[in-house]
Write the structure tokens for this entry.
Amino acid sequence: MIYFWAFVVGGLICIIGQIMFDVFKLTPGHTLSALVVIGALLDGFGLYEPLIDFAGAGATVPITNFGNSLVHGAMQEAEKHGLVGVLTGMFEVTSSGISAAIVFGMIGALIFKPKG
């Protein structure tokens, strides 16, 4: 059943993004930012972790999880180190994903030639 719920929850997040494109005529940048903020707000109110427990990869793969990771890391480090922990916690938790995106993007740019 976990695969079913992962598919449903991940699909619903994608539907929300598509509605933002089609109905509200938001640009990709605005849609991306809105989904990250939604994920951050859900984690701030303590609602994203139960969603991850329920849907697994359906909640951790979409971009909303990036907002969740930022807030989650900031809150964890704030408990340990106060205000400084808020800043360091965001970067500590998300740095591996950002680093991987940069490295793989660079490799892709070196291997493939852009058209146009």
Summary: The CA atoms of residues 34 and 73 lie 19 Å apart. Residues 2-111 form one domain.
